[in-house]
Design the sequence.
């Protein structure tokens, strides 16, 4: 039955090459509408099923079906909510349109692959779109999404084993290379993050005499002052695993205690293990005799993205995506004029590199190798 279906879709693609990409694109627009729900709700800890109806992010009123048509509704409403007239982020239209274009392009590029492989490729792409925008907006990578994409990548290898590695000719070989590619990519990025933390992630200062420190709100950010030095919270805590330790310090919230105190992005832990929530205090202050910072050189979420890319594209696809993603990240920083020290997630650029590999990677690699021969 599957062989008959594959022959039928291949025949359709050869006779009317635009038909299946068009069907995939139309379905992709609907998937993109659901992805907007995922992108909005998951980082906030909300269920994607309850409530079932989409609602306005501003006034929370349910959106009727006729105002929830992918792409068209946003354009007809001119980017404003029908209920409260508040602006709707262009991201909603961009995700729907982008998913439609990507699904259509995948169906066009991989028309010769079995239909299950085409569908699984679209599943993988849809999940990575959600990872892309969540990381871009919240600077967080959700393992539940990357693990789901990795599962889709492994299943794809059963139907199109050569995607995971050019030499794979059987489903078993494809499955092996898919699993190896994902695991090796995950461990590689974890190792890079560990080495980066050991080499560049730490800073220790000892003061000759005690210095005054304070932590208070400064605009939309928190500001840590130690003597004449100033540190912005967004720069200190680009990653959740970062920490700042004040040595032999006092703190206004517990004046009778003295010792090392450790800050995370949202808490401060005293030497005896007592934890204070930063949101409970308008200002904290005290004295300290030293400072130690611990920073992650690469986000831990990038390893999970590498896992998802590796299962679909193999180890060579991960290396290509890392290189291409680096160039994409540099271009993004230049275009958006990101300032030195300002946080910028690498995940979106990494995922963009993976999509470039899917469509053009083998051709670019072949061209590069052939140019070396001359």
Sequence:
């Amino acid at each position: 039955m599957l062989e008959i279906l594959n022959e039928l879709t291949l025949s359709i693609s050869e006779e009317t090459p635009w038909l299946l990409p068009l069907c995939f694109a139309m379905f992709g627009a609907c998937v993109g509408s659901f992805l907007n729900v995922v992108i909005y709700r998951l980082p906030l800890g909300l269920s994607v099923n309850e409530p079932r109806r989409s609602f306005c992010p501003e006034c929370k009123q349910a959106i009727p079906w006729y105002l929830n048509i992918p792409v068209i509704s946003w354009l007809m409403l001119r980017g404003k909510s029908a209920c409260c007239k508040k602006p709707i982020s262009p991201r909603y239209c961009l995700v729907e349109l982008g998913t439609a274009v990507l699904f259509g392009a995948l169906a066009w590029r991989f028309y010769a692959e079995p239909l299950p492989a085409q569908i699984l490729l679209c599943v993988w792409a849809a999940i990575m779109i959600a990872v892309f925008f969540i990381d871009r907006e919240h600077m967080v990578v959700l393992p539940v999404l990357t693990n789901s994409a990795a599962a889709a990548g492994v299943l794809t290898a059963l139907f199109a084993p050569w995607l995971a590695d050019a030499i794979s000719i059987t489903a078993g070989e494809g499955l092996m290379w898919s699993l190896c590619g994902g695991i090796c990519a995950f461990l590689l990025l974890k190792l890079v993050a560990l080495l980066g933390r050991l080499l560049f992630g730490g800073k220790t200062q000892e003061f000759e005499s005690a210095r005054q420190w304070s932590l208070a709100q400064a605009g939309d950010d928190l500001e840590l002052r130690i003597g004449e030095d100033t540190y912005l919270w967004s720069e200190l805590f680009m990653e959740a695993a970062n920490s700042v330790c004040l040595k032999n310090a006092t703190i206004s919230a517990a004046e009778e205690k003295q010792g090392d105190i450790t800050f995370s992005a949202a808490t401060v832990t005293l030497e005896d293990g007592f934890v204070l929530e930063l949101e409970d205090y308008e200002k904290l202050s005290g004295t300290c005799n030293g400072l130690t910072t611990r920073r992650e050189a690469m986000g831990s979420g990038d390893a999970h993205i590498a896992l998802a890319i590796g299962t679909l594209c193999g180890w060579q696809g991960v290396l290509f995506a890392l290189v291409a993603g680096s160039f994409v990240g540099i271009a993004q920083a230049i275009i958006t004029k990101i300032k030195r020290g300002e946080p910028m997630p690498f995940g979106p650029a990494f995922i963009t590199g993976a999509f470039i590999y899917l469509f053009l990677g083998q051709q670019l690699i072949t061209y590069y190798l052939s140019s070396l021969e001359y």
User: Anything to note?
Assistant: The longest strand covers residues 202-218. The chain has a mean pLDDT of 84. Residues 284 and 316 are 50 Å apart (CA to CA). The chain has ten helices and eight strands.
